[in-house]
Amino acid sequence: MKEHPEIKLNIVKTIDPVDFKGGIFAHSSIGKNDAPKSKIDAFADYMKKGIGNKSDIAFFKFCFADIIGTTDVNDVFRSYRNTMSELKELYPKTTFVHVTVPLVTTNKSIKAWIKRMLGRKDIWFYDGNIKRNELNRLILDEYSGREPVFDLAEVESTYPNGRREIFKEGSNVYYAMVPEFTKDAGHLNEEGRGRAAEQLLILLASLSKQGK
Length: 212
Hints:
This protein is of the alpha/beta class. 40% of the residues lie in helices and 10% in strands. The protein has helices at residues 36-48, 73-90, 110-117, 126-143, 152-157, 190-211; strands at residues 11-13, 25-27, 57-58, 95-96, 98-99, 149-150, 166-169, 172-175.
């Protein structure tokens, strides 16, 4: 936002329906990390306690830590899809945006490769990134082109020149976070946050125009 002072957003941390007036960009923590279904349930709970009647656009995102190498992504997606379908029926005036799961970087060092060849699992979130890619594919296959989707994983895995950061497991190709977008392998740095925020605002602006 520093680079675009002309953009005025009333950003408020709240889940109180009373605050949803006059135009705000509300946000809040949600659920518990490492427990993706808790975030799905918490989002639905917020909507049902009054926000669903007052929000024009609503969405939540998982944390990369919610999806790990042992996650049953089909089970998580079923819960997500069922909940979002219910919310759309309850609040037809609210536009729900689907967000892909954020990624982390993948260690491509010789040492990590040797460990994987020896049977070590989840080396530097390797297996976790595969699961995140699998869940993202389910989300995109279900909603892309039919309902609004913010592909955060695509933003995180795309270099400024358009090239994607990838890794392979057998014959399968998966996406990972661009290393230059993070300092700790998972959380976005200033450049990464700026790119994600820009693309999110572009999407939200387009949805707002459609709603007028």
